[in-house]
Design brief:
With 144 residues, this protein is mainly alpha-helical. It contains 5 helices and 2 strands; from the N terminus they run H-E-E-H-H-H-H.
C-alpha cells in the first residue's frame, strides 16, 4: 500500500475518546459556517433597514420638491405678477430703453444719484465754566 494512503487512512481512523478526529473537525467547520452565516444575515438585515430609511428620505425629498415646484409655479403666474407690479406702480420696459454692451457705461453714469452733501458737524454750545468745589471744602470755609 502507498505510504500517503496509509497516512490518510490513519487520520480517518484516529480516535479521541471514542470519536474520530475527522468527525470533530467536521463539527468545528460546521459551527464556523453557522456563525459566519448568522453574521452575514445580521449585516444584511442592517443594510436592508438602512436602505429602507434612505428610500423613505428620498420619497420625502421628492414630495418636498413637488411642493416647492407647485409653489414656484403659483408665485410665477403672470396674472399675479401683473397685479403686484400694478400695486408697486411698475410698468413694462419700453423698447426704446434697450441698449448694447457699449452703452451700459453711459447709462450707469447717467443714472447715478448725485452725491449727498457732507453733513457739517453741529456747533457745540458753550457751557458755563464752573470750578469744581468739593463739599468738604465748602463746609469748612463757611460764612466769612
Amino acid at each position: 500500500m502507498n505510504p500517503a494512503l496509509r497516512l490518510v487512512r490513519r487520520v480517518f481512523d484516529w480516535r479521541i475518546r471514542g470519536v474520530r478526529c475527522v468527525e470533530l473537525i467536521g463539527v468545528v467547520c460546521l459551527a464556523a459556517v453557522m456563525v459566519s452565516v448568522y453574521i452575514v444575515k445580521t449585516a444584511a438585515a442592517r443594510e436592508s433597514s438602512e436602505i429602507s430609511q434612505i428610500e423613505a428620505e428620498i420619497r420625502q425629498n421628492e414630495q418636498r420638491v413637488r411642493l416647492l415646484r407647485a409653489e414656484a409655479t403659483r408665485l410665477e403666474q403672470p396674472a399675479r405678477l401683473e397685479a403686484l407690479s400694478r400695486q408697486l406702480g411698475l410698468e413694462p420696459v419700453q423698447v426704446t430703453r434697450r441698449t448694447d454692451a457699449d452703452g451700459l457705461s453711459e447709462l450707469a453714469a447717467a443714472n447715478q444719484p448725485a452725491p449727498a452733501p457732507a453733513a457739517a458737524p453741529a456747533p457745540v454750545a458753550a457751557q458755563p465754566e464752573t470750578s469744581p468745589v468739593s463739599p468738604s471744602t465748602s463746609a469748612q470755609e463757611g460764612p466769612q
